[in-house]
Specification:
Blueprint: H1 2-11, H2 20-25, H3 29-40, E1 44-47, E2 57-61, H4 63-66, H5 68-86, H6 89-109, E3 114-115, E4 122-123, H7 131-152, H8 158-180, H9 188-214
Antiparallel strand pairs: 1-2, 3-4
Length: 216
């Protein structure tokens, strides 16, 4: 998931009035919808150790959160809500692109489990079957985007910069645990709840950092 956060960090400068938490939520929006759909039974996942080198997630049904056709709809809806709040063309265009970028990154990393539309054939380039390739892409994107954002808050207070570094460390730590740690329990509800639990914390923290960084 680091690649998705990288997109939000890198695009923040396209419309500074949009809080960093929103820029985090945009490229992660599909993965915010996904656990909700898991809890309602609309989509389905199971744990199959070894199904890919990087993750044991067997994404059985994700047609409504992650199919390309639905992603285009989610992108337009997300961008429209942000535009309604900010009244900025850049905000609409780039937050919508951030949401859509999720599908492109998943297409590159997933095995062939990404639908083009609900109940269609599935595609995926399968980068998750290469640990070095996955780490190079995700860590490279994340560190590059973090550098871009950090350059913009160089005059921020020490507390802001420390919190930003701590947030980066937390994200990399979670990523490392998901890649190198034991597989999670094969329990769809637990997977969904653990995914959702991090969302409000990260959005609140990112917004706190961003507000104080904007003040200089």
């Amino acid at each position: 998931f680091l690649g998705h956060f990288a997109v939000g960090l890198a695009l923040k400068k396209t419309e500074p009035r949009v809080p960093l938490g929103v820029w985090f939520a945009a490229p992660q929006f599909l993965d915010i919808l996904w656990p909700i759909f898991l809890l309602t039974g609309i989509e389905r996942v199971s744990i199959v150790p070894g199904i890919t080198v990087v993750t044991p997630l067997n994404l059985e049904i994700l047609d409504w959160s992650h199919s390309l056709a639905m992603v285009l709809l989610w992108s337009l809806l997300f961008g429209a809500v942000v535009y309604w709040r900010v009244r900025s063309r850049n905000a609409f265009v780039f937050t919508a692109l951030a949401v859509a970028s999720h599908w492109l990154l998943d297409y590159a990393t997933h095995r062939a489990d990404m639908p083009l539309w609900p109940h269609s054939e599935r595609v995926g380039l399968g980068l998750w079957n290469s640990l070095p390739g996955t780490l190079t892409l995700e860590l490279g994107m994340f560190l590059g985007a973090a550098y871009i954002y950090a350059r913009g808050i160089g005059s921020a207070s020490k507390a802001v910069r420390i919190n930003f570094v701590l947030m980066l460390v937390l994200l990399v730590g979670i990523y490392a645990a998901s890649v190198f740690g034991p597989p999670p329990p094969n329990n769809q509800k637990m997977i969904a709840l653990s995914t959702l639990s991090l969302v409000p914390i990260l959005i609140f923290w990112a917004n706190w950092i961003d507000r104080r960084a904007m003040r200089g």
